[in-house]
Design a protein that fits this description.
The chain is of the alpha/beta class. The protein is about 45% helix and about 15% strand. It contains 30 helices and 23 strands. The radius of gyration is 28 Å and the shape is globular.
């Protein structure tokens, strides 16, 4: 069945199936219909997220295994609730010594029964890797590691003969095992701490189906596809029938048994053919449980103007697009434009579109060189089949592909499915001016090869070229936007989150209504999210920062005063203005409600959380530091600036000013947050409550947003603003429980309501038959001119009256909710 509302739970060794079962009564009381849990198959030991599955044949023993899962399912069924499970078809956790499929490929090479399970190029350009796999898991260059003695020949129970490197295991091929097993001194003879042993071990390793390498070589040499640039996650060929069957067997069995009711597909754009995969999965679900309407969602980021393809047979996305819709409508266009101009003036940085292109070029060069070369080689092999194309050099094709990828606006083109090719042609046109003049002649031919479904005598080669391109464009987009440009461009960080485009002009009421009407007509069962395990900032932190778009002049004045203080004492002279502005936004956005500027203990706690965020932000930005080459000196300077700002007695005045600003905007941010919550719970779609966010959510990027949740406090109802938010959520979830058809199938219609006392109003109705739900919410609370923010976003009675007049045939309305920024009414027409 399609859920009324879901509640996302992050499972790990410290929060197991049994822990989840213990909170089921609370979730039932809150009003959700389904628990929605992170991946449940066996992942790397100690995994805090479950996306690094190492054995899909069993449920994760760290979560409680199959018995624990059955206890959770039983608890849910006792409360008439269902279960939605996150699955990871694109990749598996590798490295270490826990993935039996991966270890078998290392041992047997191309002869392994699992060799086709992974996306491995057995004949790459580097001859040293022909019929071998690069194993870039060493912490230093191979020669240094060999010299260190950290590579050790072992004969381990359950694994047999292998070379151990800390937690990593590299099995010895079968041809070499008899000689080792026959020699009682084999291990000692291959001891790399002696010259003779080192030579023997090296010679043994040179004969294996893998080549050990320093992790830094991966971007240039790797001959198997990874998840983004993470060597610990190897891509699967999920489109192959045997891979699909083996990796989905347990999940589909549990679905067939009625223990799972829906699936969320992680990173669908990483698959070779997302549409074919989704259709296969839908068919498998229908065959496993005939007559059941299983819920099938895909994690996909939609670019501006991009729509989810109905032929995939899914129920929609996991809600990043809705997060963006809500964000757009809660920001003031003129104010944000002023902040963008101020950002450019202070930092000298370009607009977001340019930042994204710069990040794409950098990531292609640093982390995806090998994948780009493989895509170019696929085109070159295609060119070689035609006399008119054979003189198109591989290097020129590679340069053209790089420029196209820099300008590609979507995650994928879906050309193999005959979809979305306009994005490819748009990218080629944009790339042409930056290509070398001799290379431009190749662009039309590349458009022919990559821009339409593969047919003809060389269809297989074209399909391979398209696949290579699309499975590179998706990670380049994600890595360059979410993990790079979002940390470089920050006029207002509330517009930087997964699925957002910070360069997009903020929305209008007409845009909001159009998006909701489209969702009601085409994707009524899509997920609606305002917080996820991947968000950059919690939903209430974003709602607070959004207020600054309505107070642009005041925020600019604050920066004028505060930025110079960060440079006092010499340390701040070296910090980039962009990093300083981002830090100040995070301090204001993450300042705990009610925190006094002289509360030393709270200041230390905030500093500790922000320090982890700041270090990640600097490395993701890849400007002054990076994960691959950390600049510890710059990071120390940035950390010192943070310490001075929050802990130095000399900065008490600045902290007092920050506290004053937060005191002014916090009530307005709370109103934004309640509006955001009500919109999620009443708009077309299925709302999701991310764990713990029924209380205020000022979390930072992971791992901060995956922290421990105090369910006892939430069950008790909370106090103050926490209580207000929880009450709104519970009230609206109860309404959804009482009127499921209205929310599942009801029409969506905008209600035109004029601005009253400077408060702009969002008003709409949901209707099914005679039943009408009317929702009236304020926008831009600070724009009302209220001095302290109290009542600034109050939905004025005149606005409510104007909305009610649109239905003169309704004589009685029931007020479901009346909070300062929102009014929700339920009525019935006489017709």
């Amino acid at each position: 069945m399609i859920p009324r509302a879901t509640y996302r739970l992050q499972l790990h060794a410290e929060f197991t199936f049994d822990d989840a079962a213990a909170v089921v009564p609370y979730l039932a009381d809150l009003g959700v219909s389904h628990a929605y849990i992170s991946p449940i198959l066996t992942a790397q030991s100690g995994s805090m997220h479950g996306y690094d599955v190492v054995d899909p044949s069993q449920l994760n023993p760290e979560l409680g295994g199959e018995p624990g899962f059955h206890r959770l399912a039983a608890a849910l069924h006792t409360h008439n609730m269902g279960l939605v499970v996150d699955i990871v078809p694109n990749h598996m956790g590798v490295g270490g010594d826990q993935n039996p499929w991966w270890l078998d490929v290392l041992r047997h090479g191309r002869a392994s029964a699992y060799a086709g399970f992974f996306d491995i190029d057995w004949t790459p350009p580097d001859p040293s890797l022909h019929h071998r796999m690069l194993a870039p898991f060493l912490g230093a260059p191979y020669g240094e590691v060999l010299q260190s003695g950290d590579l050790v020949l072992v004969d381990e129970p359950g694994h047999g003969w292998a070379v151990r490197y800390h937690e990593h295991l590299f099995p010895i091929r079968p041809q070499d095992v008899p000689a080792l097993a026959a020699d009682p001194d084999a291990i000692a003879a291959h001891n790399a701490t002696t010259p003779q042993g080192r030579a023997r071990l090296h010679n043994l390793l040179e004969r294996q189906n893998f080549r050990l390498a320093w992790w830094r070589t991966g971007g240039d040499l790797i001959n198997w596809r990874r998840f983004f640039d993470i060597a610990g996650l190897a891509a699967l060929n999920a489109g192959r029938a045997e891979v699909f069957a083996a990796s989905h067997e347990v999940i589909l069995r549990l679905y067939a048994e009625g223990l799972i009711d829906g699936l969320r597909v992680d990173h669908v754009d990483g698959l070779a053919d997302p549409g074919a995969y989704c259709r296969t999965l839908r068919a498998a679900m229908q065959a496993a449980r005939p007559g059941h309407q299983g819920w099938l969602l895909v994690e996909k980021i939609l670019a501006a103007g991009e729509a989810l393809e109905p032929s995939w047979q899914t129920d929609g996305t996991t809600g990043y697009d809705f997060m963006n819709d809500v964000s757009l409508v809660l920001h003031d266009r003129a104010g944000l434009a002023a902040l963008v101009a101020d950002w450019k003036r202070r930092t000298g940085r370009p607009g977001f579109a340019v930042e994204e292109r710069l990040a794409r070029a950098q990531n292609l060069d640093r982390s995806f060189h090998a994948q780009l070369s493989a895509a170019a080689a696929a085109l070159y092999h295609l060119a070689a089949t035609n006399p008119t194309d054979r003189d198109r050099p591989e290097g020129a094709l590679r340069r053209c592909l790089a420029r196209i990828l820099v300008h590609f606006p979507h995650y994928r083109s879906y050309a193999a499915e005959g979809l979305g090719t306009g994005a490819l042609h748009e990218a080629i046109a944009a790339a042409e001016p930056s290509c070398l003049p001799p290379d431009r002649a190749h662009l039309p031919r590349i458009a022919d090869w990559l821009g339409s479904p593969p047919t003809g005598p060389h269809a297989a080669l074209r399909h391979e070229a398209i696949r290579r391109f699309e499975q590179l464009s998706a990670p380049i987009a994600a890595k360059s936007v979410e993990d790079t440009a979002f940390y470089r461009y920050a006029p207002l960080l509330s517009r930087n989150d997964v699925g957002f485009d910070p360069g997009e002009r903020v929305g209008s009421l007409a845009g909001w209504h159009a998006a909701c009407a489209h969702r009601a007509a085409h994707w009524p069962h899509a997920m609606l999210a305002t917080a996820t395990h991947d968000h950059k900032r919690g939903e209430d932190l974003r709602a607070r920062l959004a207020v600054l778009s309505t107070l642009a002049e005041e925020w600019i004045a604050c920066l004028d005063r505060w930025l110079p203080t960060l440079r006092e004492g010499g340390l701040g002279e070296a910090i980039d203005p962009a990093d300083a502005i981002m830090l100040l936004q995070m301090v204001v956005g993450g300042w705990p409600p009610g925190m006094a500027p002289d509360d030393a203990e709270a200041a230390v706690a905030l500093r500790n959380r922000l320090a982890e965020w700041q270090n990640k932000a600097l490395r993701e930005a890849k400007r002054h530091s990076s994960w691959s080459a950390p600049d510890v000196q710059y990071e120390a300077i940035a950390a010192a600036v943070l310490d001075r700002l929050l802990l130095d007695p000399a900065q008490a005045g600045t902290r007092a000013e920050i506290a004053d600003l937060v005191g002014f905007i916090a009530p307005l941010g709370l109103e934004n947050g309640l509006v955001q919550t009500v919109l999620k719970l009443t708009a077309p779609g299925v709302p999701d409550i991310y764990q713990g966010t029924e209380f205020l959510d000022f979390s930072l990027v992971d791992p901060d947003n995956r922290g421990v949740v105090d369910y006892a406090a939430r069950a008790a109802g909370g106090t103050g603003a926490n209580s207000d938010k929880r009450r709104v959520i519970a009230t609206m979830l109860q309404l959804r429980r009482d009127h499921p058809v209205l929310f599942a199938s009801g029409d969506y219609r905008p209600i035109p309501v004029p601005t009253v006392q400077k408060v702009v109003v969002i008003a709409f109705e949901r209707r099914i038959g005679r039943t009408i739900l009317m929702v009236i919410c304020s926008r831009f609370a600070a724009g009302s001119g209220a001095g302290s923010g109290a009542g600034g976003g109050l939905v004025h009675s005149n606005a409510v009256d104007a909305a009610l007049r649109t239905h003169p045939d309704v004589t009685r309305w029931r007020q479901v909710l009346s909070e300062r920024p929102v009014t929700v009414l339920l009525g019935q027409t006489s017709a």
